[in-house]
Amino acid sequence: MNLELFIWVEAICTLAIFSFLFRENPVYRLFEHIFLGLTIGFVLMKTWLEVLKPKWWDRLIYCIEVGDPHFWIWIIAFILGMMWYFQLSRRWYWISRIAIGISLGVGAGMEFKNQFMLIMPQITASFKPILVRNTQGMLQFSFNNFFMVFTIVAVLSYFFFSFEFKYKGMQLLPRAGRLLLMISFGAFFGNTVMTRFAVFIDRIQFLIQQWLHIGGG
Amino acid sequence: MRGFIIKLLTFLAGLFYFLEFILPAKIGRYNNPLTPYIQPVGEFLIVFWGFAIGVGALSLMVSHYRKIKLKRPGWAYSIVFFISMIAMMIAVYLNSTHPTPKARFMYELLFTHMYMPLGATIFSLLALFMASAAYRGMKIRTLEGAVMVLSAIIVMLGQVPIGLWLTHRLPAKAQLPRISAWILNVANTAAYRAVIFGIAVGAIAMAIRVWLSLEKEMEVK
Amino acid sequence: MRLLAKLQEIPYRVVYLLVLVAIVLPFVIELKLPVFVSNETLMAYNTIEQLPDTQIVIFVSSWDAGIKGELWPQTEALMRHLMQRGIKFAIMSQIAQGASFAEEIAERVAKLYNKKYGVDWCNWGFLTGDAAMIQALAKNIPKTVQKDFRGTPLTDIPMMQGIEDISDVSLIIDIDYGPRPEWISFVHGPYGTPIIFGCASIVSSTLFPYIDSGQLAGLLVGVRGATEYESLLGYRGMGHKLIIPQSLAHLLIVILVLLGNIGYLAARKLQ
To answer: Rounded to an integer, what is the distance from CA B187 to the centroid of its chain?
Structure first.
């Protein structure tokens, strides 16, 4: 009984949103606002139950109960956390800049390690042997490696704006880089189509098989 | 004065992680003094950023409350927003703390059978527009355009079973899935790696500017 | 030639109808097509096949309802493999909703393999903090996580006994619309822990460089990654259900693009 009710509710929600494909209408707007409300309610309660309550409130209460002198750390966390909310005040907006500043500072400080750890292996992986010998498929490996090294250099040269490429011969490399970049953009477009259709097909599959019981599954 | 304090706090906040990375793990007999504090500082920041999550929600609630108060067009929808928000909060709370069958039913109804399909369907709306846009927009006018369209076609067909079915009689290396895999693993990898290098340089430059509060937007008036 | 030029003027409603027919058809008429398993999916499969069962896996599920079509089948396939091999895993999420979706999938899969919560898998819930949280987690898991999403202290969960830091973790799986490279920077880089990403197809192009450099131990790309993984595990799940209509939709898009270009070239010749 519950399952039937759930399926009908899911179908109504799906069709209400799909009605937007004809034109914007009150049913779509109603369910859009329901979705917004559900999202905000879920995020707020989950943040309290899984982040703030166990990691801040319970710790603060415990520290006060046992007389742990470190309870002041969690008071400071609360004060700094509340500073975020001054973004909504025109007069006291500058207080929120403290929280934003700390957040940006932490992010910036971590970015050095982040980029170093991410990029150094990329740089070393770019140095590939152009001639691969004594292995099966050595022609293909050699070609692939050469193609990769050439593409990296060509695309980097395309984004190099510090000086002008005066001679025609020098202009060939950035032009090749632009062409090779187009292969990447084409692949990106192909993947975009894949994602958009996958989520659409998932909804159609639900309507056809689970709601209307057409076809197997 | 305010501006100076904010800039100082920004710098100090970043200095911890920067120094922890720059200083070696061992200096003679001594270990990096900052490494033992990674975990407690991380814990603190989890709570700090946890509080930030409510800002967007509060802003939205204020906006909808004003709409109801001033009876702006569509104010009834804002009431629906608040009702569904409160209903979900109750459902999540009861399901987590007092998981009775009724609480479970309410949670399943609101989360699994309303929130999930609504979210999935909203995101799926673009698919049909994408089909129409691809048909109208992907016209071969230049050599670059032709390369891009060809690459898109190979990747689109090569990544789904129909690509293999269409070309299964060809030699292995000429089959669409393998050509698609080559495009993704060789051509795309190399091109995007070059882009990553550019992004990395930009990210580090931006990080320095933000850390030292050199950005104009960070001025406090 | 005039007729050919009209090929670029198919009304958008006809395009929508053709797309719907292409998608609905495989649900009415069963079609079976061969699945090609890509290298990056095979790498992910082999990585999990070679995992020791003495350590745990951290299963980061940070996807939202909007991308359910692509990432639900991936999550299910990977969880099936882990449970099949008897490898314990802990779910967590960097967004509020993610852990709840993963919890639902884990409960369904656990029934198939007779696995118990707390013994074979657990759910740490939602953890904010991005890179700072990741670094803290790597140093000390019980202190950073503290309680599971039901409020049970980690020290009371049987599978978490003896799990202290990243050295007790054999693998990190991050299933997300766009998985965060911070796992590579702050976990794989300093500690060498293998990472597998599961992502939406749309962002997959940006992650292939990490496969080439060895920073990723595997990559599942959208619904086709899920289908490939299901093939390796030997079952036909949601991935297989979605990939066939996907195939026909892609073929239709390619035909429409070609028709559009034929029409465009014919129109140019007429001018």
So the answer is: 26
How far is CA C118 from its chain centroid? Answer: 24
The total number of structural domains that make up chain A: 1
Residues C199, C60 contacting (CB under 8 angstroms):
no
Q: Do B160 and C19 touch (CB under 8 A)?
A: no
Nearest CA in chain B to C9: B136
Q: Which token pair is C55?
A: 């350590």
B66 and B117 housed in the same domain: yes
The chain C residue lying nearest A183, using CA atoms, is: C205
Q: Which two tokens stand for residue A164?
A: 């002008």
Token digits of residue C143: 């202190």
Work out the burial of residue A201: count CB atoms within 10 Å of its CB; fewer than 13 is exposed, 13-18 middle, 19 or more buried: buried
What is the domain extent for residue B157? 140-218
Q: How far is B192 from chain C (nearest CA, A)?
A: 7
Instruction: Give the chain B residue nearest A187 (alpha carbons).
Output: B152
C interface test, pick of A46, A102, A207 with most C CB neighbours within 10 Å: A46
Domain with A203 in it: 128-217
pLDDT higher than 90, residue B119: yes
Residue B11 forms part of a structural domain: no
Taking CB atoms and an 8 Å limit, are A184 and C205 in contact across chains? yes
pTM of the predicted structure, to 2 decimals: 0.93
pLDDT number for residue A137: 77
**CB within 8 Å of chain A, chain B residues 41-70:** 43-55, 57-62
Burial of residue A205 (number of CB atoms within 10 Å: 0-12, 13-18, 19+): buried
Residues in chain C: 271
Q: What count of CB pairs under 8 Å joins A to C? A: 144
Collect all residues with Cβ–Cβ distance below 8 Å to A19 and sequence separation of at least 6.
Answer: A25, A27, A28
Output the six-digit token pair for C243. 């990939």
Interchain contact, B116 vs C65, CB within 8 Å? yes
pLDDT tens per residue across span B128-160: 888 888 888 888 888 999 999 999 999 999 999
Does residue B21 fall inside a structural domain?
no
Q: What residue of A is the nearest CA neighbor of C126?
A: A50
Interface probe with A: pick from C23, C130, C184, C195, most Cβ of A within 10 Å: C23
A51 located within any domain: no
Same domain, yes or no: B43 and B115: yes
Count of residues in chain A: 217
Best mutation site among C20, C257, C264 for testing chain B: the one with the most B CBs within 10 Å?
C257
- DSSP-assigned beta bridge partners for residue C219: C197
A29 — pLDDT class (breaks 50, 70, 90): very high
> C-alpha angle with apex B162: B191 to C263, nearest 5 degrees?
75
ipTM: 0.90
Chain centroid to CA B193: 20
The whole-angstrom separation of Cα C203 and Cα C180 is: 11
**Cα C235 versus chain centre, distance:** 17
Residues B148 and B119 in one domain: no
